Amino acid sequence: MISVQAPPEFTEKLRNQTARRGEPAVLQCEAKGEKPIGILWNMNNMRLDPKNDNRYTIREEILSTGVMSSLSIKRTERSDSALFTCVATNAFGSDDASINMIVQEVPEMPYALKVLDKSGRSVQLSWAQPYDGNSPLDRYIIEFKRSRASWSEIDRVIVPGHTTEAQVQKLSPATTYNIRIVAENAIGTSQSSEAVTIITAEEAPSGKPQNIKVEPVNQTTMRVTWKPPPRTEWNGEILGYYVGYKLSNTNSSYVFETINFITEEGKEHNLELQNLRVYTQYSVVIQAFNKIGAGPLSEEEKQFTAEGTPSQPPSDTACTTLTSQTIRVGWVSPPLESANGVIKTYKVVYAPSDEWYDETKRHYKKTASSDTVLHGLKKYTNYTMQVLATTAGGDGVRSVPIHCQTEPDVPEAPTDVKALVMGNAAILVSWRPPAQPNGIITQYTVYSKAEGAETETKTQKVPHYQMSFEATELEKNKPYEFWVTASTTIGEGQQSKSIVAMPSDQVPAKIASFDDTFTATFKEDAKMPCLAVGAPQPEITWKIKGVEFSANDRMRVLPDGSLLIKSVNRQDAGDYSCHAENSIAKDSITHKLIVLAPPQSPHVTLSATTTDALTVKLKPHEGDTAPLHGYTLHYKPEFGEWETSEVSVDSQKHNIEGLLCGSRYQVYATGFNNIGAGEASDILNTRTKGQKPKLPEKPRFIEVSSNSVSLHFKAWKDGGCPMSHFVVESKKRDQIEWNQISNNVKPDNNYVVLDLEPATWYNLRITAHNSAGFTVAEYDFATLTVTGGTIAPSRDLPELSAEDTIRIILSNLNLVVPVVAALLVIIIAIIVICILRSKGNHHKDDVVYNQTMGPGATLDKRRPDLRDELGYIAPPNRKLPPVPGSNYNTCDRIKRGRGGLRSNHSTWDPRRNPNLYEELKAPPVPMHGNHYGHAHGNAECHYRHPGMEDEICPYATFHLLGFREEMDPTKAMNFQTFPHQNGHAGPVPGHAGTMLPPGHPGHVHSRSGSQSMPRANRYQRKNSQGGQSSIYTPAPEYDDPANCAEEDQYRRYTRVNSQGGSLYSGPGPEYDDPANCAPEEDQYGSQYGGPYGQPYDHYGSRGSMGRRSIGSARNPGNGSPEPPPPPPRNHDMSNSSFNDSKESNEISEAECDRDHGPRGNYGAVKRSPQPKDQRTTEEMRKLIERNETGPKQLQLQQANGAGFTAYDTMAV
User: Fold this and answer.
1) Which of 190, 396, 616, 802 is the residue whose CA sits 20 to 30 A from 83?
2) Which residues contact 517 (CB under 8 A, 6 or more apart)?
């Protein structure tokens, strides 16, 4: 036996095998070779172990030639698409074979479905190709439906499998669609992709409106109704409809009106076409529109407007008299274009001419032909006739009245006959005319015949104007029969009734006249007859409206018994009765008087108004007796002239047309008849519709560029009245004057304002005018920059309410705090000024006389009221006090002891309270020169104990110019009284008011007195003329805690000569007010000067001004200019303008003491009285009179800005 050793071998090395996903598959591999052969399976070069996946099963079958290995897959998956390799191995070698396993499945769904483009009826789509499932894609299926439909009602588009773009067509415009796509291969179709939703673009409607109906409403209006097109043909949302109309059978274009769409489903749309022609055929079409455009026109619908009344009357109207009772009337039809309908009949309106204006007396006859005959007319009567055409719309315009008169005929019988006995052989026959004379009465015939006898009838012809006949030669007590006939040119008429009468000796009172109605014309005379017979002659009396008549200027009884009324008026109308009476009988008749007067005022009411017309309703007055012929309507605008319009009496309403829109009108009417024009009605005040122009919105009106602004005047609303013109003005915002651009801009065009500056704010003022008035509008705008940009808006604050303003202010502390502080300062300043002013007014004219005091005397600090009394309170108005005009105490007042420490216009009298001073020992002060008290005068005067009234030194008190502004009434008004020695007599050359060294001829003034000096000034005052000065030096201070600690505070002062000579030394009263401890520059530091010269050289008062020094006399403070000397009080008036009408009417207390009271020894040197110190009674009277007029002149000076120059003053 031969053994062949062969390795394994596969006859087929590689093959493909397919399977559908989810189905089982078996892979087989047969290896030939020497057995035993082992076979292993690899999947993508990886060992396949069935233990790891139970889907796989490997089986082997031993064949004669080798081994068969089978790999079973229970259900294939996509991952099974792989390269499976079977490896066979035996003892002699190995071999392998491969099977390419392909698992096929349906494709995945397409993705990234996008809309590339769309229109109203198509959409362009794209998508990404999905996984094909290992089977080529055969095609794509695009599915789409309307958004409200289900996916079972879909349309499909097939696309080849190799493309990824497609177009879907046959869509409907403005429709929402859902679109999806599926892929298909040999295995099957994929799932649908995610659906996309699209809305196709709109198109103009493709359908026509439906159910169109056109119906006439009235003569000028038609109503059009319709329904929308089918919903599928809207192609979008219908916004409205265009309704076009035109005259039928013409080539004119349609006039379209726009109607908004009604959203209610199935709702009919309608439109009334107005202002159409009467009874005219129109063609109407309708089309729907959306935002893309308008759809197709509907079919034409034709219709006539309602019939109207003929606008023109029949023409060529004429009449022909046929007989005494018939007239033929003929005419021509109105023009066809004015018929306004189908003329069916004609109307003939006729009436006797004298009754034409009485509507109730008119007659109407209808006929379809163009002529007719009027029957049954009154004989020999003038008739008025009119003809009109009628349609279904009503009666047309009447023709012009025509007049025809019927032929005459024999008259009717006289209306009534009377036979009245006049005596035993005479009878009076009277009669009334026939009611229808049927012509002109030519005569009357009176027939008479004796009754019961076959006698011949007698006739008597009587003229037509005679209404009675006296039959004579009759037999007594024999009855006679009478009757009367009337005759015309045609012949004799019918006879009246017969009446029988018998002559007699007794003739009772009878009236031959008949009851009658008389018609009188306004302002003409009327006569009512009352012919009476009787024997004796009857007495005739008249009664008017039941009241017995008494003759007057207008009414009187004529000799024949008739009543004559001159110039009748409306009030004369009524009943008049005539009474005849004699001893046998009495008789009476009653006449009725009708006065035909012009019409009374008619009633005018407003019926309707439009923008250019007024409709008024006219109604005649109820009291009119004469037929009204018509009205005259008067009207005028508010500021225009009166115009008139005639109105027919048949027209109950009348239109006044052609009026101004939106204007006030006044309207009244008057009636007229055959008598004349009547009274005017009340004036009706009304106005036509329409208003002034209304403002447009700024963005619609103004269009701004860099150097111009365009004005769109069509944006203005005319208020119902057409615009007439515009006035355009402009200016820059910061300018005041307006520049007129144009004053007559037409409203139909746009207007451009040129030559503006770029990036600039402007104001624009537009005045729009129409007939109702004008409206002014102001706009602000900013021109654009050169590059077309805008500039920053203006910083105009918005309008705030009062609450908002208060809230904003209170929340801003930076504003509130300064404002409140400023207000407080102002209020405090006002209060201080008022206090100063009140105190200044209280002390304004007071002159304080201070008591002399010795070197050891000072003011009592415990009596501040005395310090105030001695002080000078400056008025707040900075004007000088009227010192010369002050009211000082007279000697009589002082001696009587009137007044207290503080009284109005009083001088403090130190003699009334002896305990006002206290003695102080003057500390030694080193002085240069003479000591006080040894130069002049008596020292006893200075050291006298207070309280000795007869030992007071003479002194003078006056106000020195200066220290007005700075002096505080509560701090700087303490004074000292420094006594003067008797100086040298006689005038002193130079400045006499300055202290000079002892022994100098001008050392003191020649007048004795005292000066009060303020204590609070630390400044040195230098003589502006002589160069000499006096200073105060502080004396040793008191141990008073109220005094200031610094050395420069106010102490007791010593009067020293600036050249070293001591004039006065002694303690002065201290200030105990800490407020006086102010810096030096804050204490009375004003500068002085003034043109005071020679007039003061003659004033006899010793100057006591000096300097106040901070230190001693050896260390004076810095000097300041000396104040001017005080104004003189008693020097010659001719030398000073300051005393003009300002002298005091009183004398000082010192002069009282000097001239009248007891004198003490006031000095060693005596001087003789000066002439000016000695005043006579006459001089005193003049002084008093001058003082009374002084204050008034001072007030006048102050009011005119004149007065004293303000200086810093101190009381001296």
Assistant:
1) 190
2) 591, 592, 593, 594
DSSP label at residue 1171: G
Residue 1081 neighbours by CB under 8 Å, 6+ apart: none
- The CB-side HSE value for 511 (13 A sphere, CA atoms) comes to 25
Please report where in the chains the tokens 């509130």 appear, as a residue: 816
DSSP state of 885: T
448 vs 454: CA distance, rounded Å: 12
Region of 141 (left: φ > 0; alpha: ψ -120 to 50; beta: rest) is: beta
DSSP string, 45-72: TEE--GGG-TTEEEEEEE-SSEEEEEEE
Q: Which of 563, 510, 513, 514 is closest to 535 using CA atoms?
A: 510
Give the chain's domains with CATH numbers.
9-104 (2.60.40.10), 111-199 (2.60.40.10), 210-304 (2.60.40.10), 328-405 (2.60.40.10), 414-505 (2.60.40.10), 509-597 (2.60.40.10), 603-687 (2.60.40.10), 698-796 (2.60.40.10)
Under DSSP, the state recorded for 479 is -
Q: What angle do CA 327, 328, 334 make, to 5 degrees?
A: 135
**825-883 per-position pLDDT tens digit:** 999 999 999 998 887 665 555 544 444 444 444 444 444 444 444 444 444 444 444 44
**Alpha-carbon distances, residue 62 vs 90, 93, 1014 (angstroms):** 14, 18, 156
Q: How far apart are CA 728 and CA 742, in angstroms?
A: 5
Beta-carbon contacts of residue 336 (< 8 Å; ≥ 6 apart): none
Distances in whole angstroms, Cα of residue 400 to Cα of each of 276, 328, 333, 508, 631: 29, 16, 14, 58, 17
Instruction: Tell me which residue of 71, 70, 93 sits closest to 80, measured CA to CA.
Output: 71
| Cα(756)–Cα(731) distance, integer angstroms | 10
Q: How confident is the model at residue 1019 (pLDDT cuts 50, 70, 90)?
A: very low
- Judge contact between 384 and 401, C-beta under 8 A: yes
Tell me the sheet residues that pair with 1056.
Answer: 1031
Residue 632's pLDDT band, with cuts at 50, 70 and 90, is very high
